[in-house]
Design goal:
about 150 residues; alpha+beta; tt1808, chain A; 3-stranded antiparallel sheet; 9 strands; globular
Amino acid sequence: MQRLNLPEYQFNIKKKDNGFIIFDTLRRRWVTLTPEEWVRQNFVRYLMEEKEFPKELMNNEISLTQNGINRRCDTLVADRQGEPLVIVEYKAPFISLSQKTFDQIVRYNMVLKARFLIVSNGMSHYCCKIDYEKNSYCFLKEIPSYSQLVD
């Protein structure tokens, strides 16, 4: 798979039929290894290992309903009370992160009301903090550690 702008990690990958599958430790099952899935698996490991996000507070492929339409949030991270803290949206490395990507994660956040939004294609990563009291947001220079998010 493509080298990403993230530290390198070891994964459990198997050949299956005409492609590969990778073991998702959050979903605890094998999933098809697509370019977007490669970004997800690497970024989740980055959050856990480099930014100390607790594995038990993270979930992949969370279902939500918005205006009667079923959607899936790529990764949801909860705070210690179980409330949404971070939503992460992934794209394949060859997909540029555009306004459309940000619009997508904002739509999910209209339902989830997380305090932080992250988008990544494995090459570029953006994190913004939502201020609900001031009805504003700001982009952060880097992705904070979990402890910085909950303080």
